[in-house]
Amino acid sequence: MEAKEIIPFIEPLYRFCHHRLDNWHDAEDLAGEILLYALDGMGKYDIGSLEAWVWRIAHNRYARFLDARGRRESLLSGQELSDTGEVYWQVDEESVEEEYEPVFRYLHTLSSGYRDIFVDYYIGELSVRQLAGKYGLSEATVKWRLNVGRSRIRERIETNQMDKVYARINWNTYGCNGSMDTNRYLHSQVARAICLVAYEKPLTVEEISLRTGIPTLYIEDALPELEYGDAIRMEGNKYATDFIIFRLKDRAATEAVAGDLVQRMADFYGGLLWEGETDPDAAETQNRSAGQGTSQDMGETQQTAQAPAYWELGFYGRERGMDSLGYILVPFLLRKKIEDLKNYKLQLASGNFPPRKDGGNGWFIVPEVPAQGETGTAAYCNGCNAHEAGGGHLYQYYHEKGRANGSLQRLARCRILPECREGVVPRGRIPEEDLVYLVQDNLLCREGDVYKLNFPCFTWEQFTGFCALYGREDARMDARLGDWILSVRKSFEGFVPRRLHGQINQWLSVYCGELIAHVMEELIHRGRLKASGSAKDQKPATDGVFYIEGTFHCI
Q1: How many Cα atoms are found within 13 Å in the side-chain-facing hemisphere of 476?
Q2: Are 488 and 511 in contact (CB under 8 A)?
Q3: Is 75 buried (19+), middle (13-18) or exposed (0-12) by CB count in 10 A?
């Protein structure tokens, strides 16, 4: 290659640098540096595409220029280079080249009518109007050629490769009111990378590209969907993430204020679970000596002298001891207590959820989770799934390892629960295929020739009566819990960007749920609650599954 072949790139390179830097002096210095590197390389290497070569050098030298300037300013100011907090991946010359290489490689495969417009728009940053004037085309034609060029390059690169961002971003994503398909918007690593870098402060497309190392065309492809899903919002010509990301470092800071609250609450509710009930081992011995079977059969045996008060309620399905029923009782009581304190006494109600463009309401809930194999958050989930099941609702407070949500939906669709007042499923009422799944997930159990419900079922009156038996008040516990909620609120205000402070109260509810999860885990650890999914049966747990007739809705 001859040196004169570089001449057509001089003007676009100066434009490239000028659009990205503060002044002409820096732009001229950087453009000159890029040209020198390109000319030097032309004499040393066998270059397939000069265009790809030049623009790859331009991006690499620009990244190095910013890095050098940032380090210099950091030394002068005594501040860290990064203004986004924690660094989630490293963007260096090799990684930039790795991701941009496919784009550069395929630029030369476009015809000149598409390639020149594509380069001037994405690299030279000319507007559609400027491009129309430069090439004597209508703005509609320019837009059409840009779209065609983008589509052709995407087809040749295989877009799925762009989902491999430098370090995987591990998030759990769900909607705060359960009505949104968050995975539709945040399933890809590209979408997550965009939202992560635009979290602390709004960024332009160019700034997002530089911080993530993702080529601009992929970012522009992702942004419309993220905007539609209200994951990203525009502020002027910049984009800002529109939901709270609960990062691991933020979680650590928040959990530091919990103190001994989990232990105290486990003491309180552990005492409630056993109030008026004999030790399970002692009860089992007594029942055996009386010829009444074991404590595993409590629902089918006569009451002993030490029978707990809830037996008098007469609810149907499989009645179990409080070491199982506590999976229902404790989350319900705690959730109600927390909601009452938060919303009414502390005046921290979430308020109405905002309407969304996709038809839902509310915000995304996005906690960061550790990489696979690392220790994380509580395995127990206090979330309550509800499914309309004919004449009432089927609920589940679930343990992660024993989640049977798919089977709950299947059982709800059968709409047979009000017909099972004796706990027995009517013969032929459930299709054979459904029976297999429901037995497999332990929601039904087989005894001889009949199938029985393997979880408790209540009328509305029975459930409220059941909760009332254990609804103890404790002013000191309420005070500690209220102080903790306020401390968590203050912690969130410290790390959540100010523009997102309106979402904090909703996040308070979510995080208080994690407190409940930790209390449940502590009760399991102490033996107050039966460990779900025991090694002896390996079946998904049904502890926490229950049905309520009528219109009652759990919190």
Answers
A1: 4
A2: yes
A3: exposed
Look up residue 179 and give its two tokens: 């009505």
> In whole angstroms, what separates CA 442 from the centre of its chain?
28
Can you list the pairs that 151-155 forms with residues at least 24 positions away whose Cβ atoms lie under 8 Å? 152/106, 152/109, 152/110, 152/114, 153/103, 153/106, 153/107, 153/110, 153/118, 153/217, 154/217, 154/221
Alpha carbons 482 and 348: distance in angstroms, whole number: 11
For the chain, report the end-to-end CA distance as a whole number of angstroms.
72
For the chain, domains (ranges, CATH) are 3-163 (no CATH), 174-249 (1.10.10.10), 251-280+312-364+385-549 (no CATH)
Q: What's 371's DSSP letter?
A: P
Residue 282 confidence (pLDDT) = 40
The continuous run of DSSP H or E covering 84 comes out as none
Paired with 2 in beta bridges are none
Amino acid identity of residue 453, one-letter, is L
375: number of Cβ within 10 Å:
5
CA atoms 26, 27, 32, 38: torsion sign: positive
Please tell me the pTM assigned to this model: 0.65
How far apart (Å, rounded) are the C-alpha atoms in residues 424 and 440? 17
The secondary structure of residue 260, as a DSSP letter, is T
State which of 163-177, 470-484, 534-548 shows the largest mean pLDDT: 470-484
3-state secondary structure of 179: coil
Q: Which has the closest alpha carbon to 100: 157, 37, 47?
A: 157
What is the phi/psi pair of residue 447, to 5°?
-130, 105
Give the DSSP H or E segment for 58. Answer: helix 50-77
Element spanning 323, H or E: helix 322-340
pLDDT band at 354 (very low <50, low <70, confident <90, very high): confident
Lowest mean pLDDT among 151-165, 351-365, 396-410: 151-165
